[in-house]
Automatic annotation (TrEMBL):
It comes from Seriola dumerili. GO terms for cellular component: endoplasmic reticulum. TPR repeats lie at residues 72-105, 106-139, 338-371. The keyword Endoplasmic reticulum applies. Residues 392-452 form the J domain. GO terms for molecular function: misfolded protein binding; protein-folding chaperone binding. GO terms for biological process: protein folding in endoplasmic reticulum. It comes from the Eukaryota. Residues 1-32 form the signal peptide. InterPro entries: DnaJ_C3_Co-chaperones (IPR051727), DnaJ_domain (IPR001623), J_dom_sf (IPR036869), TPR-like_helical_dom_sf (IPR011990), TPR_rpt (IPR019734). Keywords: Endoplasmic reticulum, Signal, TPR repeat. This is DnaJ (Hsp40) homolog, subfamily C, member 3b. It is found in: Endoplasmic reticulum. Pfam families: ANAPC3 (PF12895), DnaJ (PF00226), TPR_16 (PF13432), TPR_19 (PF14559).
Length: 472
């Protein structure tokens, strides 16, 4: 107030003057504190970025941007973190904002142009590179990138022209260079994937489509196409995973939901069938695989798989003739399937047709030379064949080669009773009967359990009874 009197100000004016001074002091303090905080966030962001702690660095840069939305450098530095995290789409708005705040910021212009070029946006990229060259005509990176942008533009036109002419091989060749320049361009990858599909190479199509699910926002079309491709390849779990991603984006998508129901039903049946096999519930597994063929009759892979596994199950439950028929049908569908040949060989062994078993195992080994099961199975079939050629056990028992176990045992009992040595009196007749009795017992054991012949058969004869000993 004393100063007011000296300057001649009235009481009201003097009070207003003092209030303004106080407010100025308070605002200066607030602005100073905010500036310190912003600098702290920027410094922490820089250190964390250098240390590779990207998420933490990004958090500090978020705070710096919120603290000062007019500072072009904070946007630029946050964009650098987004790029380090592989989030180029998030970096673009920050680079654009930095350029708006400082139009002559060449580093941001160049960085944005590089991103746009990798995204395949040639015209926008060229605009940024030209803007850099207008202010810095000798800028080497901008010159090189402008040349690439012009090359990319020409290649894109060439690729589309080849595609419309139906020359998919040429389209793929051109797109290899296109994608090399613009790896973040979903359109080029989708076009190449379509070419691979038309040329019958779904695996390569999958490789191209997979990254497009991240390169486009809400790319339900890519998820659906991926699910369909995996489904047709028989990869039902992958198919189910992709179609679920589509429904996460829009649970009401009709195409995705329709395919989801089909994949889910089929996948459940396939998993159940394999579960039954693991639990030795083979008849239930056969029934389930019959259902698989009804659920999906149009994709050959699933019918072939069902036929193969039904063949396996019939062998496992020792239905020899049914297994041979089922395995033969599966073999016709997939002639190079080593598993089917192995299983049919086992069915032939069950039917005592060792020569055909050896043939199947030899063919299976051509397609899968590393399988221990096939190698061991072939050795076993060869031993059985060798043994069977020494003696005709069916002839000894007087039964057909397709006789079942009950028929074999019935014939054995009849002949064993007939040729029991106790039924004969003379020494010569008794010795002949003993020989016959041993052959009959040996035939019965081999035909009811082929593996026993491999272990050896020894018969001990006493005065009143005969004992068959297996082993040794």
């Amino acid at each position: 107030m004393e100063s007011c009197r000296r300057t001649g100000l009235s009481g009201v004016l003097c009070s207003l003057s003092l209030l303004c001074v106080i407010l100025d002091i308070q605002l200066d303090g607030v602005l100073g504190a905010t500036h310190v905080e912003i600098e702290h966030h920027l410094e922490m962001g820089r250190k964390l970025l250098a240390a590779g702690q990207l998420a933490e660095a990004l958090s500090h840069y978020h705070s710096a941007v919120e603290g000062d939305s007019k500072n072009y450098l904070t946007y630029y530095k946050r964009a650098a973190v987004f790029l380090a995290m592989g989030k180029s789409k998030s970096a673009l708005p920050d680079l654009t904002r930095a350029i708006q705040l400082k139009p002559d910021f060449l580093a941001a212009r160049l960085q944005r142009g590089n991103i746009l070029l990798k995204q395949g946006n040639t015209q926008e990229a060229k605009d940024d590179f030209n803007a850099v060259l207008q202010r810095s005509p000798d800028h080497e990176e901008a010159q090189d990138q402008l040349i690439k942008a012009n090359e990319l533009e020409e290649l894109q036109e060439e690729a589309h022209a080849a595609y419309h002419q139906g020359d998919y091989s040429a389209t793929i060749t051109v797109l290899e260079r296109v994608i090399e320049i613009s790896p973040w361009d979903p359109e080029s990858r989708e076009l190449r994937a379509d070419c691979y599909i038309r040329m019958g190479d779904p695996q390569k199509a999958i490789q191209d489509l997979t990254p497009t699910t991240r390169l486009r926002n809400d790319n339900r079309a890519a998820f659906l196409k991926l699910s369909l491709l995996h489904y047709r390849l028989g990869e039902h779990h992958d198919s189910l995973n992709h179609i679920r991603e589509c429904l996460k984006l829009d649970q009401d998508d009709k195409e995705c939901f329709s395919h989801y129901k089909q994949v889910k039903k089929l996948s459940k049946q396939l998993d159940s069938a394999e579960g039954y096999i693991q639990e030795d519930r083979c008849q239930e597994a056969i029934d389930k695989y019959e259902s698989v063929m009804k659920t999906e009759p149009n994709v050959e892979y699933y019918t072939n798989l069902a036929k193969e596994r039904i063949c396996f199950c019939l062998v496992k439950i020792k239905l020899a003739m049914e297994a041979i028929d089922a395995c033969s049908e599966a073999h016709q569908r997939t002639p190079r399937n080593a598993n089917v040949l192995r299983d049919r060989a086992e069915a032939y062994i069950l039917n005592q047709d060792y020569e055909k078993a050896v043939e199947d195992y030899q063919e299976a080994r051509e397609f899968d030379s590393d399988s221990n099961d096939i190698r061991e199975g072939l050795e076993r079939a060869q031993k059985l064949l060798k043994i069977s050629r020494k003696r005709d056990y069916y002839k000894i028992l007087g039964v057909n080669r397709n006789a079942n176990k009950q028929e074999i045992i019935k014939a054995y009992r009849k002949l064993a009773q007939q040729w029991h040595p106790d039924n004969f009196q003379s020494e010569s007749e008794k010795k002949e009967a003993e020989k016959k009795f041993i052959d009959i017992a040996s035939a019965k054991e081999v035909l009811t359990d082929p593996g026993q012949e491999l272990k050896g058969l020894h018969i001990y004869i006493s005065d009143s009874y005969y004992i068959l000993v297996l082993g040794i």
